[in-house]
Amino acid sequence: MLLPVIMAGGTGSRLWPMSRELYPKQFLRLHGDYSMLQETITRLDGLSIESPLVICNEEHRFLVAEQLRQIDHLSKNIILEPVGRNTAPAIALAALSAIANGEDPILLVLAADHVIENNPAFHAAIQHAQPYAEAGNLVTFGIVPTGPETGYGYIQRGDALEQGTAGAFTVHRFVEKPNKETAETYIASGEYYWNSGMFMFRAQKYLTELGKYRPDILAACQKAIASTQTDASQEFIRVNKAEFIACPDDSVDYAVMEKTADAMVVPLDAGWNDVGSWSALWEVSEKDDNNNALTGDVFLHNAENCYINTDEKMVAAVGVENLVIVNTKDAVLIIDKSKVQDVKKVVEYLKSHA
Ligand code: GDD
Ligand code: MG
């Protein structure tokens, strides 16, 4: 039994001003025909899986329910978090709810905001990983890195577990988001993958490992899910607010993957991108002859390597290069494409002036 768990509770602030607290990145149609959440689910078509479990913030319940309906997933499986406590607790809630009726499914934990170009390769990696997860490993999908990115966790592979092209390795170590110099040494060594943030393990195995390393998180999630209410009229599973607020905040990477002795890595080479910035979105978008990626009503003259996205008003740009211009109803972003990580300065400013 393979149960996809879709983590959809992030804020996606690096894609401001399109991505907002009320409408974060995973619910936007940024690439492809559907929203990123919808793409995450439809990408699984053809695999032998249970109906996916989506875990998101309570505020986004109608958005998620509507987006699932649009792709004919009348999921009764939407867990609502009253507050965000990061991915370790989110996966714990999903695992606890998955074992509630005495089963112990394999969880395929996916982020709701990634782009994957090569679906057959992705499906093959999932099928490749499944027996390892069934045997009690915590499998992480490792992306062959193309540069010293600092927005990703890194996995140093250990021993090869099999011969052949698909590959599977033990994990020597896990390093969450290193600095640039460190990342460069990792790339040079050829021994590292990017952590895709996608995992596969048995529900009970995850809970056991979480209990070893973060018993406080496990205990808080057990209390929060024990007093869960399922909405009769809606498809939501509501987690107890007071109990979940008391849960410590941590990512699955820090809380479990870095510490467990049973981690392993299955390489994934499938055109993966976590679309963590406007330049990453430019990279995966279709471009014109001058390498401009354009959405909406845009006029260009002598412009190249730009990303321009406009909701309503027409945008005209002349004699510019390497610019990102994002025009929404109430805000316009103009930023150098090599400085897009600094969007967080804008978000910090807005938070401090809210
Ligand atoms: N339900 C829920 N609740 N989902 C959450 C929460 C939460 O509190 N926090 C984050 N998420 C979801 C996000 O929506 C996203 O889909 C996923 O979990 C990962 O969270 P991010 O906040 O995007 O993590 P990251 O990108 O900084 O880092 C992780 O992903 C990288 C790859 O994209 C790490 O796993 C890195 O090691 C990894 O390289
Ligand atoms: Mg991310």
How would you briefly describe this protein structure?
By secondary structure, this protein is α/β, with parallel strands linked by helices. The protein folds into two domains: 2-273, Spore Coat Polysaccharide Biosynthesis Protein SpsA, Chain A (Alpha-Beta Complex), CATH 3.90.550; 278-352, no CATH class. It contains eleven helices and 19 strands.
What would you note in describing this structure?
This protein is of the alpha/beta class. The chain is 30% helix and 26% strand. The termini are far apart. The mean pLDDT is 93. It binds guanosine-5'-diphosphate-alpha-D-mannose and magnesium ion. Magnesium ion is lined by residues 111, 274, 276.
Q: Which short descriptors sum up this protein?
A:
11 helices; binds magnesium ion; 26% strand; alpha/beta; Spore Coat Polysaccharide Biosynthesis Protein SpsA, Chain A; 30% helix; binds guanosine-5'-diphosphate-alpha-D-mannose; 4-stranded mixed β-sheet; 5-stranded mixed barrel; 354 residues; 19 strands
Write the layout of secondary structure elements.
Elements: E1 2-7, H1 36-42, E2 53-57, H2 61-70, E3 78-81, H3 87-98, E4 106-111, E5 115-116, H4 119-134, E6 138-143, E7 154-160, E8 169-175, H5 180-189, E9 192-202, H6 203-213, H7 215-226, E10 229-230, E11 236-238, H8 241-245, H9 252-257, E12 263-268, E13 272-273, H10 278-284, E14 293-295, E15 298-301, E16 307-310, E17 315-318, E18 323-327, E19 332-336, H11 343-352
Parallel strand pairs: 1-2, 1-4, 2-3, 3-11, 6-12, 14-16, 15-17, 16-18
Antiparallel strand pairs: 4-9, 5-13, 6-9, 7-8, 7-9, 8-12, 10-11, 18-19
The chain binds guanosine-5'-diphosphate-alpha-D-mannose (GDD) and magnesium ion (MG).
